[in-house]
Amino acid sequence: MNLNPFATSPRTVWHRQLINSGAHLALFGSRPLNTFPLEEVRQAADTYINRVKLIPDTQSCDVHLGELINEHAQRDFGGLKDVALLACMHLLSHDRGSSMLMSLKQECVSMARPDYPRFLRCVILSREANRLLVPEQEYRTAQALMRLLAEPNFLESVNNLFQTMQHLVSPAILFAEDITRILDSINFREVFKQSLDDLQANKKYMSLYTAVNWIRPMTTLQNTSTAKIVCTTLIENWEHWTAWTPDRERLMRWEGATFAEGQRQRLHRVFDLESPDPSGYRFAAMKESIPGGCFRLVTVANNDFRYLNHVLVLFDFAMQIPGKHAIELFLFLLVENENPVDYDLLVLTQTILETRNDSCIKAVWSWLSNLRGTSNNNRMGALTRLLPALETKTALQEKLGRDIANDVIQTLLAAKEEYADTRDVAENLALSIQNLAQAVLDTPWLRRILDDFDDTFVPNLRKLPTEDVLTNIFNSLQERHAPVQQIEEYLGIVFGGKEGDAEALLTSIQKAIRFMAPGVDADRANLGLAVNNLKGIDEDVSEACLNHILVEDLHIVRDLLKILRTDSNKARDHYHSHVRFARELARRVRLAQRIRVDQCWYKLLFSLLKPKAREIMAWSAKELPVEEWYQWLNNLKLLFPHGEGLSVTGLGVSREELAWWDLLSTKYKTAVEKLDEMHKARGTDLKWLFFQETDNITDLLDLLQRQDSPSSFQNFLVSCIKQRPYLYVVRLVCTSLAAANQASPQGQTAFQSIYTRHKQTTDEWWTREATEALTIAWRQSNEITDGDREGLAAFSELLGLGPDVDPNGLHFARQSLLSDHVRIMALAQELDQMRANLQNDDTARTTAFLAELGVEDARPGADPSIPDRLSSVVEGVGDRQYEICFPLNHLSALQRRAAAIDETTRMVLVRISFQTPQPSFCVHFHPNDDGSGRNHNPAFSGWEPPDGKVCTTKPTLLSYLLNRALSLFLSQAQRDLVSIYEMVTTLLKAPGANCVVCSRSMGCKLWRPSFCSDTCGEIFQRAPIEVRTCHLINEPTILDLLLGSIYAAASEDTSDLLPGCPVSRSNLRTVIDSFPRLISNTSAAQLLSLIRGGPDPMAVEREQLLSWMALRFRGCLMSISSDLRIPSMPGVVQFMMLNAPPEREQAFSHYVGLAGGEEAPSGGLTFHGTSVERLWKIVTEGLRNVSGGRGVALVDEARTAMDYSGRVGAGGNGWQKSSFMNRRLMLACELVGHSRQGTHIVSEEARVAVRYVLLCPDPEPEDGEDGEAGQQMQVFRMPVTSTGDVNETVRGHFADIRTGELGR
Fold this sequence. Notes:
Elements: H1 10-20, H2 23-28, H3 38-51, H4 59-74, H5 81-88, H6 94-110, H7 116-129, H8 136-150, H9 154-165, H10 176-185, H11 188-201, H12 205-212, H13 226-234, H14 239-242, H15 248-256, H16 263-266, H17 268-271, H18 294-297, H19 305-319, H20 325-335, H21 343-353, H22 358-369, H23 376-389, H24 394-421, H25 427-441, H26 444-453, H27 457-462, H28 467-476, H29 484-496, H30 502-515, H31 522-533, H32 539-549, H33 554-564, H34 571-591, H35 599-609, H36 613-623, H37 626-639, H38 655-666, H39 669-682, H40 687-690, H41 697-705, H42 712-723, H43 727-741, H44 745-762, H45 768-779, H46 786-798, H47 807-841, H48 843-853, E1 874-878, E2 881-887, H49 893-898, E3 907-913, E4 920-926, E5 939-940, H50 957-970, H51 977-989, H52 1014-1020, H53 1025-1028, H54 1030-1033, H55 1036-1049, H56 1054-1057, H57 1065-1073, H58 1084-1092, H59 1099-1112, E6 1116-1119, E7 1133-1139, H60 1142-1154, E8 1164-1169, H61 1175-1181, E9 1192-1195, H62 1198-1202, E10 1223-1231, E11 1239-1242, E12 1248-1257, H63 1267-1275, H64 1283-1299
Antiparallel strand pairs: 1-2, 2-3, 3-4, 4-5, 6-7, 7-12, 8-10, 9-11, 10-12
Helix pairs in contact: 1-3, 3-5, 4-5, 5-7, 6-7, 7-8, 8-9, 10-13, 12-15, 19-20, 19-21, 20-21, 20-22, 22-23, 23-24, 23-25, 24-25, 24-26, 24-29, 29-30, 31-32, 31-33, 32-35, 33-34, 34-35, 34-37, 39-41, 42-43, 43-46, 44-45, 44-46, 45-46, 45-47, 47-48
């Protein structure tokens, strides 16, 4: 009740004082704990007991205050039990106070989310309220726990907590298990371990040592000690840390040091030497632990611990030297060195470090690091820098002198070989050799060592050019007319060791350099240099040209200089210059200028062309535009006329080639222009045309040259060149075109047929594989010639068709051609019916009209017993024997699968005979089982309707349905062909509308034919097994799913979930395990053979189980294409339930009728999660309101239903051969009268129809799941489909199920 604000009773005043004190804010609000108004609430309690005359620490006071505390907690104005307890704590007896504090602890621990901070705050404040109630060590432990829970510094708080607990003996309130629970609430084990792992991973071993140092005293505590109990409970292998005694000063230096970038990471192996021993042998540190792998961190010779300690000492020494290179040297020699550390390596390192000079250490480190795997330039640079750095370091000179001398010799020899292999002046390499040589000559102590090795080495170094000479030579190369060739030859001799007169060359070069002085005509000098550098020129021609340059007209000099001077070594650039050379000479000849062109230039051009004339001609045909190519040929014919000393034929050009080129430029000019445009667009060339690199070119040229419009086929061939103007394409086009031009009539048909089908491929009416099959069939035909075959082979390759028949392509071609045949036959029937109708109206005019059209006049009446309206579908095959044709093109692929009709079956043929009193009949399927060419063995009406095979037709569900229907129909003395035709047509229009046994109406629309009653079911059991089980063996994935459900149900009470199962519960799983693994592409015949065949003792029971399943499961469950699936459910396997068992489907149809019949809107999409073991019961009987519930539970959201879905194989109860293991099972249902409301409890179970069975990836795979399946489940996630997004699409599917339009 609410307090009266004017009340003055002591209780009321006390309650209000506690509330107004704000104590609750310090306990549960934003104020710190030290602001708790303890004195204020204590005083309020003291005042209260004085007013009510209670004596503290008495039983009556304990009882009264206990009631008062509970009353305060139950007030509706904000009273808190904790505040009331703390206010009264000093007034309670020790036992009562302890009891209430323990009660509060139990209350905090028992909460859904234990409130440990609340309990700890009360313990701390209880100590301050009554020092005798809470011992000091428990009080300090509670404070330490509060600090740890605040997490400002986790490891420091842990240290403080356990040091405090070391003194906690015989606790009264805060026991070890309490502390353990509190620490568990913050994941202490994981956080503490992760913190230590992070420090160890980052090599912060000083921080790590500090973090675990508190553990060492645990060994001295008794096992009953609170600290030791908590430590043992929470810290696994804590004794491991007590053995670790590293060099702490070294750890502090390492952790506080500043290293250059990347060095700390590279030093990790050194840091690890002071890390804890992981071997379990309790060594003081890793550096002492062979089992722990100390010698794997730093490899030392003979696994000598002294070497390992020396490495650490040298590291400490290196850290004292300013600069980064001391550490780099240490890493290079002692850590990253692939060779074990031995005494000599340690002494070498120490000697280098003792210089205490970063520059010197850097020079030595640079030299050592460049000894292997680097370029000669780098090695020479390192040696050049090293020698002056060691000038005053006598200790290093003695230690490294001979090694340095040997490296100098080896490096200069390698540089010499490298220079010998270079193709240019290699200025940098030459200067590096010269610089190192000079550095050696400037180092007396090294020269003495080199003289001991080879007394000729240093004298040879003195023969190298000086730096000034090299600089002048390299500077001259900047001049455009420098003697580059001579310079390259000279440098090759002095630096590369090649043979030659270096002094003479140097003299010549220096003269050439002086000749480059100002005043010399640059153009004449440059032209002379260009001519002199030409390769392969006759010496007389070259000399004549050089002499003539001095007196040649300056205009010619400048024109020729532009052409002949080139810095490129590429052949194409030289060929271009030859073409330009010829063009310039021909231009001057044509202009007949007064300045005569000297004969030496003709000879020079001829000398340039002749050695590689064929290559140049091929290049020009490939690179030059057509017009320039013709000009180039004309220039050559002008400059080198046929029959004179310098002639075109002397350049390797034949007269036939000249004639061909003339023909292209005259007769085929337009065709060449068209080809040129095609090749320009694709960046290709016409070399194949100019040099006739393929046969039948003239066929292509004639086609392109003609003025009239070519055929579509010819246009296609030309387009192939446009799209891919490559030689191999041109060859195929020319071969195809020539073959087509000369093809036989059948060959022309073959070309046109393949071309037409290829065009249909782009419209998705045909496939590429089908075209391959068609092409191979034509090429194997005996009706075409060898020339046709060769052309078809080329055309096939042009289309990119393979040489082998793809089974899928052959199947597609066959199916398409059969489909075309059926379509044509249907059109023919339609036309024939029109003819018959016209004949009936006006025979004479119709006859005349058909004659005008050239159509055969098949007059009716040839067989008077066949009605005119059936003349197109009924054929007389004997005396009172008829064959009636029923096309099946009205059935969709989905309807065919539901009725188990083979996809290749195009029509049903019913043969009727009225020769005997009892009419006989048989049913066949065209084209694969039409009974043609065989003796017929029909069934007779009036006998028992047939259950098995009739005539030669293989038993199928459709043949069973038709045979029994015909037997019953004809037994009623029906001999009217029209009635028979209409009866069969009605059955084929909706095969599932009538009972397969008695032909009675099923009372609702069914996709899959079934029986109507238990009596018919017993008769149906006599049908062949392939008929009874067709809906299972035709869909192996459906059988897989249903077997998995039965397998799971075998662990339950089978009398409820598996009524009538012929296999005992104890043996059921064994029988299912004996089934083969069910693969989706296994044919029905193969699968049935695997289930029934072999000496397997389980074969009989497998067949019994399969038969029972086929008779119990009377619905239609099918795998479906993507367009029929529920959208937005990635990774979900979906099966569609086209109809439920007949009784359930009929009841559902009743509710649909109440909602408006077929015109009513479809039911809404809902979801239902269920267990795997109940799936069999659901698909055979429908969703039921089980266990006396309020109704069938459905939800609008898939994710909600997922919470109730079972997992295939959960708990190890799954069929291991199933492909659906570890998937979650969910159903999508149609609900009549649906409106979105989240959850539906449907009491009228017939309003619900299961429409989809969904197998979803498990969003939360079981613990321990591994392997491929586990990985897949971790990749997939729960589908997030919302019915609001997809309801309209799925409603359309629901409507199409009832109208039969689904899948069309």
